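cron nightly-structures :: item 1 of 1
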Amino acid sequence: MKKIVILLFIFLLIAPSLSLAAQGHNTAQRIETFMKEVMKEYHIPGASLAVVHNDQTIFLNSWGTMSDGLAVTEDTTFLIGSVSKPLTSLAVMVLVEGGKITLDEPIDAYIPWFKYQTDGTKKITVRHLLEQTSGISAYDGMKVTDQKGRDKEKGITQAVTALSGVKLSRDPGEAYEYNSANYLLLGAIIETVSNQSFSAFMDTHIFSRLGMNNTTADYESAVDKGFVPGFHSWFGKPVKADGLYDQSGAPYGYMTSTTSDLTKFIKFMLNGGELLTEQSLKQFISPPENGKRYGLGWHFPRSGNKYPYHTGATPEYKAEIFFIPEQDLGAVLLMNKYHELEAVSYLSIMEGIRSIMNGKSTDLVQLNVRTQWITLGVVLLFAVISLISLIGLKRRTTINKKYGYLWESSPSFSLPD
């Protein structure tokens, strides 16, 4: 009888752990099944996902291959697009804590050679750049971002010089307008105050200190870590691309990383560490005031729980990262295929992961291939119209030349008086 009581007592002690283990196994199974459905439905060649909960990596798996045929793993290099922005913002916060940068200081104090035109008296501050409220239009930003052919060491300076003289579309701080040029300017500020190249500063003061040893901020290092071209999406199907990389673009969209490394970044954001004080970390991840949508390098949902997240995309890669401090939950997803018209569908993937973690059902959004066909049809229609117009113009020119010559060579005559 005594042995039975002891066994019953031990069972009562371990029963909750067994229940949690079973629940965790069921969650992992649901994520695995969901991701296999994602890979098939969206025709994604390769992807990698990590989910962090209560400081533990509760799910880590990879599927498919890269364009060189190698299998995707948690250490495979992906371009992370605008997920680069929170890392640049973290670098700024480190420099703020070190007394090198002041958030509300006009950027003239750091890069006085960058000029801009404004009708008002307000000046662009570092905070304005971080919060995407500088007043520089997205249209002007697109003129200097996502470009090939810039120099490895001077690429950021070259791009900022090309932007210099820009006319602000709004007063600084007046309105949010997402624009990668803001983070390009932050890259130039980091280089100036640190007296290092952007990539060297990130390597020394951010990546190595977080143990992100496979994360890079320049093309040569990326290739050394295994960077290969990703895939365009041609009506939903993957087509190998040429490996677009902007040497000036690391601050806003051309860092490369791995699922394993970005998991370390998530754990730092959830738990803190030596890189930032608790106060600075809290400021870094706090939602913006007055209902704004973008904080210090992070998006926040428009409604509901205001947790930090960021998506990232280049023409060949897609990335997304989020963490919810109240739930001690975070995840990162990397994929090697992208098309702008498929963006909404891809967003439903991470929403599905959050739903699974909350014990809810998932619902994938169908790929928007129809819109791609419509777009192609419109382009072809305009091409046909242009071709017909060109043929018509050529015929009229030929007729004019022929009959114009006959008219000029015919005998002249005059009406009688």
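cron nightly-structures :: done
The first helix runs from residue 2 to 41.
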